[in-house]
Design goal:
Length: about 110
């Protein structure tokens, strides 16, 4: 089973970059770790880098993966929600609509 997979890793002409990596922990929890480097972040937070996490407990990750099709959970996650690049909203909206809870942490 795949335990770590990049959902996206994009660099733009203006120097901005966006990366989201998903990992499955040994207890079954799912962690999405994002890292964005943008001028907008610098204007808002005083630093070009913003790190954020979406954390799904083992039970919530199991709920999510039970709905998705595919034998490899992280591949199914990527194929279902991240084919169009750096937009996290389809996954988050899906989770909200299906009662799948997660914690968002921004650093």
């Amino acid at each position: 089973m795949i335990t770590v997979l990049n959902m996206y890793d994009e660099k733009q002409e203006d120097g901005s970059s966006f990366r989201l990596t998903a990992s499955l922990d040994s207890d079954g929890s799912l962690v999405l770790e994002g890292q964005d480097f943008t001028q907008v972040a610098k204007e808002i937070f005083g630093d070009r880098e913003v790190e954020y996490y979406y954390v799904f407990s083992p039970n919530e990750a199991k709920k999510l993966f039970s709905i998705l099709e595919g034998e490899e959970p992280l591949l199914a996650l990527k194929e279902t929600f991240f084919q169009n690049g750096i937009d996290n909203n389809p996954l988050l909206t899906f989770c909200d609509n299906h009662g799948i809870e997660y914690r968002k942490i921004v650093i």
